[in-house]
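#lab-general

N.A. 3:47 PM
ok so I finally got the sequence cleaned up, no stray characters, all 214 residues accounted for. can someone with queue access submit it? mine expired

B.Y. 3:52 PM
send it over

N.A. 3:53 PM
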Amino acid sequence: MTAPDPAASRFGTDAFYASIGRAFVAMCAVPPVLFAIEFVDTRLGGAFEQAGGIIPRSPAGLDGIALAPLIHGDYAHVLGNSVPLMLMGTFLLAAGTLRFVLSTLLIAVVAGAGVWFTGDPGTVVVGASGVVFGYLAVLLARGVVEHSWWNIAVGLLIGLLYGWQLIGVLPLDERISWQGHLFGFIGGLVASVVFRRRREERDETVLSGSMEES
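B.Y. 4:20 PM
back already:
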């Protein structure tokens, strides 16, 4: 395995734009997968929702912590999550594949566990909105955590586009799992700290840039 190119983290370099492009292409594969799962689930009469959804405080619903983000209630639900997943996921993935995978797993587990412990026992919760809110939290916090002007700019952009969705962490609509939104956001904040670029990595990027420009 080769070490990541430090220039890919430095705004304005060819490696940086290439990294963004590759990440976008990769994230474009997510919506078709989610729509394909929903297509099969529809043909099976919603069997995936019952088998793979989170059922709060029920041992039978524990597997939903891993499976629920892949399952949705209908096509509109898939579409509503696909666009922010694709856009925000692009910025996260461009910063490193391993960090992206680990952050996604942490967010999904925290969101799913939060729903399982605090949700209404009479419900079945599905959807990737917890992951969406986790991505939102990572992008909003990463610039501050990593002292990166580029990530601060990304956070401001995402805040302008999706900041209004933070109202979703409040229990305003009984049809929506606000617990998944809230704990997904918390998971994203934790991921932004745990999987941040370390000081030595940032110094390496700056040093690499200085050497290339000299």
